Every structure is written in C-alpha cells, then in structure tokens.
C-alpha cells in the first residue's frame, strides 16, 4: 500500500483529480464525509487528508510515502524529502506588501509581519537589511494597518486580500506552486511505483 498525504481543501481535491486521472483512483476520497483515510486495495493506494502545512511532516517522517505540499512550506521548513515534480497548480507568489503610503527608511529596523519567518529572514539577509520579524499565524494583512509592522511577507494569489485592505505588493520574493514530494527511504524501496506515478502525473501537466 502506497500512503499518499493530500492537502485538505480545494487544492487537495484538484490534486486528487490528478492522481485519479493518472490511474490511481479511490472514489470514496471525494465522499462528503468526516473520514480522513481512504484506500483502494486493488490499486495499492491509501490517501489521507491532512492540514496543508502538515503534509511535509508526514512525508519527512515516513507516515506518508508521498504527498503534495506547497513550495512555501518546503522553503520555510526545509523538510528532508525529495521534491519530485512541480504540479503547476496552486500557483501564487510569496511577496512583500505594505500600505500604499509606506516609504522605506533604510536607516531604521524594518518590522516584518509574516507566517513565513525563515523565508522573510532569508530574503532580507540577502539584502543585508536589518529586520525585526513578528511571527503571526494568519490574517497577516492586518498587521501594517494597526502599525504592528511596516510590511508583510505573505502569499498573494489573486491580490484581492491586499486590495481590500489598501496594501500593495512591493516585491515578489519567490513564485510558489504545489509540489509532489517523497519520503527518502520510501523512494528507495518503492522506486518503481513512485516513479510510475510521477511519470503519469507529469504527462497530465
Ligand atoms: C492566504 C494569504 C492571503 C490570501 C491571499 O490566506 O495568507 O491572506 O490567502 O489570497 P488572495 O491574493 O487571492 O487574496 P489564507 O486564506 O490561507 O488565510 P490566512 O489568513 O490564515 O493566511
């Protein structure tokens, strides 16, 4: 049985559709239930829904053989996994944004609110910019409005959240999309199965 961790939510359903088209269907996955684990014995696959930011943990520790995680999570937590394929879905970008009135003063420490502290730290370290990171868990856009921070580093997809909160993008940090990842030892022991799935999904992209 190949264990596959899928990110719960809209992206996960889209990604499951890719596995289905690749010939690894498990129709019960899309049943509207509270169940989290589904298997198709005949196809030798077991899917489970986990919080998107937890997929890499399941895969790194071998609870899942493969999974789908956003590049944002891979850059932030640097899990020790193989990144097999860019699924070209869940496309967005990590960006620096600020209120339209913001003017940077390089002589002052920049206050940066973010859920992605490591990505933000790397980005500003490369610029030699002195920053103070304020780690938040969500609704990051509020931080500069309430003067908790000067700027934010966050995910921008449609740009709607920024627009509705009078913020604008100052710079793109890195483009983001969903990636197929594998546990390192599972890849060694199930190379043919994992490579076949990767190849079939690649053909669909
Ligand atoms: C994400 C991100 C932005 C928003 C961007 O938030 O943190 O807030 O989506 O999308 P948009 O550009 O299409 O408006 P999410 O919904 O994951 O919630 P969060 O506040 O918990 O981060």
End-to-end Cα distance, whole Å, is 25 Å
Tell me the number of helical segments per DSSP (H or I, 4 or more residues long): 8
Low-confidence stretches: none
Strand order, largest beta sheet: 2-3-1-4-11-5
C-alpha geometry: elongated
How are the SSEs placed, and which strands pair?
Layout: E1 2-7, H1 10-21, E2 37-40, E3 45-50, H2 55-60, E4 66-70, H3 71-77, E5 82-86, E6 92-99, E7 110-114, H4 117-126, E8 131-135, H5 142-145, E9 151-156, H6 160-164, E10 167-176, E11 178-182, H7 184-189, H8 191-204
Parallel strand pairs: 1-3, 1-4, 7-8, 7-9
Antiparallel strand pairs: 2-3, 4-11, 5-11, 6-9, 6-10
Bound molecules: 1-O-pyrophosphono-5-O-phosphono-alpha-D-ribofuranose.
Task: Write a structural description.
By secondary structure, the protein is an alpha/beta fold. The protein has eight helices and eleven strands. The strands form two sheets. The protein has a six-stranded mixed beta sheet. Strand 7 (110-114), helix 4 (117-126) and strand 8 (131-135) form a beta-alpha-beta unit. The site of 1-O-pyrophosphono-5-O-phosphono-alpha-D-ribofuranose has 12 residues, from strand 9 and helix 6.
Short description:
The chain has 205 residues and is an alpha/beta fold.
Descriptors for this entry?
5-stranded mixed β-sheet; binds 1-O-pyrophosphono-5-O-phosphono-alpha-D-ribofuranose; single chain; alpha/beta; 6-stranded mixed β-sheet; 205 residues
């Amino acid at each position: 049985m190949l264990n596959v961790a899928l990110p719960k939510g809209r992206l996960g359903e889209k990604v499951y559709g890719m596995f289905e088209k690749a010939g690894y269907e498990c129709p019960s996955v899309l049943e509207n239930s509270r169940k989290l684990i589904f298997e198709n014995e005949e196809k030798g696959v077991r899917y489970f829904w986990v919080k998107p930011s937890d997929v890499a943990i399941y895969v790194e520790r071998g609870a899942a053989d493969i999974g789908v995680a956003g590049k944002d999570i891979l850059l932030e937590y640097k899990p020790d996994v193989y990144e097999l394929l860019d699924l070209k879905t869940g496309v967005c970008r990590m960006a620096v944004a600020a209120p339209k009135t913001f003017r940077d003063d390089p002589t002052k420490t920049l206050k940066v609110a973010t859920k992605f502290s490591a990505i933000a730290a790397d980005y500003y370290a490369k610029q030699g910019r002195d920053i103070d990171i304020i780690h938040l868990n969500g609704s990051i856009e509020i931080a500069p409005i309430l003067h908790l921070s000067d700027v934010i580093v966050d995910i921008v997809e449609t740009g709607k959240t920024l627009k509705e909160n009078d913020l604008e993008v100052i710079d793109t940090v890195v483009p983001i999309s969903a990636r197929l990842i594998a546990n390192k030892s599972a890849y060694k022991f199930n190379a043919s199965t994992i490579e076949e799935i990767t190849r079939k999904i690649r053909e669909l992209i």
